[in-house]
Amino acid sequence: MAHWRIKLSLFLNYFVIAMLLNSVGTVILQVQNSYGVSESSASVLEAFKDLSIAAVSFLVASYIARIGYKRAMLIALAMVGSACLVMPSLGNFWMIKLLFAVTGTAFALIKVSVYATLGIVTANKREHASLMNFIESFFMVGILTGYFVFSAFVNDADKQSTSWLNVYYLCAAIAFTAFLLLLSAPLDESSVQENKPKPLLEDFLEMITLAIKPLVLIFIISAFTYVLIEQSIMSWLPTFNSKVLHLPATLSIQMASILAASTALGRFSAGFALRKFHWFYVLVICLIAAASLVLVAIPLARSASNSEITGWGSAPLGAFVFPLIGLFIAPIYPAINSVILSSLPPRQHGPMSGLIVIFSALGGTTGSIITGNIFQTFGGQTAFYFSLIPLTVLLICLYIFYKLQVRQEVKVEFTSSSH
User: Fold this and answer.
1) Containing H/E element for 327?
2) Phi and psi at residue 107, in whole multiples of 5°?
3) Residue range 4-186+200-418, CATH number
């Protein structure tokens, strides 16, 4: 039970930031209702969130160990709590964009810090992979909770109502509670501190040099593609439920929680599976299953009836089946992150975590904007069929990543034995 307090703190920090960060799908639907914003215009909310994540990660990841992982997370929680506190009184489309920019900035600090901290509090590669999946599954629990919390503030009787903005008072309270918990949790960061810190430019160049290594480069493409898939589905599922399946706004948001629940279950299960089976074979099976589900689920949406839907019991089958894709794509992201991080020395975990966050953010923005524009031009069913293309690309990338990782392990073993 070593490090249990800081591990609990990491779980709860991830939980609160997940609620806010992944409310973007709910907010995309609500700004269309409350402010009359089009699908293509609403899709830029993902960019405000993700580009701030990418920019902050790019600027601070190479020297975040100097700031201190704990201190960086405290700064992030204070920022996001303050922004949520003023949100309801200043609520408009521009303030929502600003809130997502602040949330993205906070998430960049938290995610880089959490990923780097895992190397401090775990003893070996398998424990690292397992804890990574458990933490990422708790992130999905935060998303799942967020769907029900946000939907509780939505007024179905008046679609143009902005009463849903009051949810941010609750979010502010949770963020400040997480701040106090982290403040009380001890974290010894001495193992990642250098006795003679390098110049900042040298730290930055180290991150750039790291990015052009073949193993890291193919990992970056894999992470980018995965997040493109995940965010394109997650951000547009409430709108898909509302405009394609004709569910009421509140139910559209609540039923999108099935995706978060299935993703959390998938990652939680993978935390056990990856202790027994090789990550590559687990992920290949998951990708094939995910593509098969797309081919089965989308036609169900096409055959949905136009009868009035009043609750979960009268919702069409497609609303339940398609979100189960989360069960199969869930293990991919934390597994490949763990593989790349555990292949590097602890002092490179900060810069590598920064690269993960940067390219994940770019993938999320790309996926949401592409899906939003396809949704507006060709409809929701075509937009979700689009996921088959990056799923295929990801399968190819994972095969190359696996081969490069095996080659590196052989090279390291050969070098060790020769000494």
Assistant:
1) helix 325-329
2) -65, -40
3) 1.20.1250.20
The letter for the amino acid at 146 is: G
Indicate if the pLDDT at residue 319 is higher than 50: yes
At 115-131, the pLDDT tens digits run 777 777 676 767 776 77
**CA distances from residue 50 to 53, 74, 107, 163 in whole angstroms, order as listed:** 5, 20, 10, 26
Write the pLDDT tens digit of every residue in 357-379. Answer: 788 888 888 888 888 888 888 88
Q: Is 141 exposed, middle or buried (0-12, 13-18, 19+ CB in 10 A)?
A: buried
- Give the integer Cα–Cα distance in Å for 327 and 263: 5
**DSSP-assigned letter for residue 278:** -
User: At which residue do the structure tokens 């940067």 appear?
Assistant: 358
Give the number of other Cβ atoms within 10 Å of residue 210's Cβ: 18
Amino acid letter, residue 11: F
Mean pLDDT over each residue of the chain, to the nearest integer:
81
CA distances 151 to 252, 255, 310, Å, are: 9, 10, 15
pLDDT (tens digit, 9 = 90+) per residue, 225-278? 999 998 888 888 888 888 888 888 888 888 888 888 888 788 878 877 877 888
The residue ranking higher by pLDDT, 354 or 151, is 151
Q: pLDDT of 152-191, one tens digit each?
A: 888 777 777 778 889 999 999 988 888 888 888 777 666 6
Which residue has tokens 């939907």?
A: 151
| Polymer length in residues for the chain | 419
CA dist., res. 298 & res. 312, Å (int)? 19
Give 323's Cβ-side CA count (13 Å radius). Answer: 26
Q: Single out the residue of 107, 117, 137, 144 nearest to residue 334, CA to CA.
A: 137
| Of residues 83, 258, 42, the one with CA closest to residue 171 | 83
Concatenated DSSP letters of 199-234: PHHHHHHHHHHHHTSHHHHHHHHHHHHHHHHHHHHH
- Distance from C-alpha of 208 to C-alpha of 41, rounded to nearest angstrom: 33
Residues 6+ away with beta carbon under 8 Å from 114 = 10, 13, 14, 69, 73, 135
Question: Rounded CA gap, 294 and 9, in Å?
Answer: 36
> Which residue, among 292, 275, 373, 276, has the nearest Cα to 42 in the 3D structure?
373
Show the tokens assigned to 125. 């590669």
Gap between the Cα atoms of 50 and 232, Å rounded: 13
Give residue limits of the domains in the chain: 4-186+200-418
Q: What is the maximum alpha-carbon separation in the chain?
A: 73
> How many CA atoms, within 13 angstroms, populate the side-chain half-sphere of residue 318?
24
